[in-house]
Amino acid sequence: MSKSVPWRLLSAVVVFALVITGVSARADEPAVSSSATSGSTQLAPQSAPQFPPLHVAIASVAPFVLPQTTVPEGFSIDIWNEIARRMHRDFAWYPVATQAELLPAVQHGNADVAIAAITMTPERERVVDFSIPYFDSGLQIMVHTQNDNSFVGSIGAVPWLAIAEFVGVAAAIVFLLANLVWLMERKSDRSFQKPYWRAIGEGLWVTMLIIATGEHGERDAPGVWKRVLVPTMWLIGVVLIAQLTATVTSSQTVARLQSNIRGPDDLPGKTIGTVPGTTAADYLAGRGLPFVSLNNANEGFRLLMQGNVQAIVYDAPTLQYWAPRLGQDNVSVVGPIFRPEKYGIALPGGSQVRKSINEALLAMYDDGTYEQIYRKWFASSK
To answer: Which parts of the chain span the membrane according to its record (predicted)?
Structure first.
């Protein structure tokens, strides 16, 4: 029994030591855990930063940005709304008075983006960046519809060239009919028993009488062929006269509604209006053509209908949008589209959102969203 006491005592000491060690370890755990927690708080990724709203500069130029609307509307407005939605970016509109102020707003930091109907040019590319193009455009001409009802105007509107062509065709037909009359009458009528050209002269006279009256001089014993030929010749004459009348009438109507400006080559010597700072103004200046400066397209339409300018040179989509709304009896868009151009979204040089905008536009092209927006605004003109 005496030998077992030391072993028991030794066992008790060991157990006590283990207990003390465990308590000490547990006492140290909170400090280690706190330190680890503090370290993890410093190294954990922070939440995504909240970007400030983008300031988007716009200027009225229908149908891209419609004028005088409570909430901005238009093709470019719809395009930007969809881009911003796909980028998950808030924005605020920054309206400017004229198109010429759009690029300076971006250059001077007043706006992060500018969108309306901004033509991409090498000169502009040197001062701002552009997105990929989102609209194909060009220049066109609008003129005041003429409506001259005077006698002199009517004479001037006669399509003399068309009449000359018609008379040539009609003369050939009448000459052919005169030969038929000659063949029919040469054996029975002494008036046709002459040399050929004199007999054909008689045939022409008879043919004209038939066309004018529908009758032939001989009524007593007309033959079968004569009964067929006379009304046929009369009907042919009626058709010729009707065609001549229609040609003159329609040509006069069209000529009255047309201007003597039918394309860019007719612009020299005319009073032209356009908006300064636009590609239309650059085009006219490049050709040495002076122009009346307009604040906007609406002012140009008013001056055009008042006769203060003879033509407006401007972006084709805008002119085509306004022409039916101003009335075809008042204005008309003439000539082909010239100086092709592309619209883009303007941004400051090195803008961080340019890539996101391009990606959104490409996705809109790919999934058909762009086409839907395009048809909404331009289905009637394309």
So the answer is: 160-184, 196-214, 234-255
Separation of alpha carbons 300 and 105, rounded Å: 25
Name 75's Cβ contacts closer than 8 Å, sequence gap at least 6.
Answer: 63, 64, 135, 373, 374, 376, 377, 378
Hey, which residues does 259 pair with through a beta bridge? none
Q: Which residue type is seen at 78?
A: D
Domain coordinates of the chain in residue numbers? 54-134+344-378, 151-257, 260-340
- The answer for residues whose C-beta is within 8 angstroms of residue 231's C-beta and 6 or more apart is 214
Is the pLDDT reported for residue 258 higher than 70? Answer: no
Sequence length of the chain is: 382
Contact predicate 62/322, CB 8 Å:
yes
Quick check: bond before 63 cis, omega within 30? yes
Q: What is the pLDDT of residues 149-158, one digit of tens each?
A: 445 545 555 6
| Of 307, 273, 269, nearest in space to 293 by CA | 273
Longest dimension (CA), the chain: 180
Whole-structure pTM value: 0.59
Number of other residues whose CB lies within 10 A of the CB of residue 187: 8
Q: In 3D, which of 88, 87, 86, 81 has the Cα closest to residue 65?
A: 81
Q: Return the CATH fold of 260-340.
A: D-Maltodextrin-Binding Protein; domain 2 (3.40.190)
Closest CA to 157 of 257, 243, 246, 262: 257
Q: How many CA atoms lie within 13 A of 71 on its CB side?
A: 2
Q: What are residue 331's DSSP bridge partners?
A: 144
d(CA 267, CA 270): 5
Q: What is the CATH number of domain 151-257?
A: 1.10.287
With beta carbons less than 8 A apart as the criterion, state whether 272 and 292 touch: yes
Specify the DSSP element, H or E, that contains 273. strand 272-274
Q: Which of 22-26, 106-110, 264-268 shows the lowest mean pLDDT across its residues?
A: 22-26
Q: How, if at all, do strands 311-315 and 135-144 pair? A: antiparallel
The answer to whether the beta carbons of residues 128 and 109 sit under 8 Å apart is no
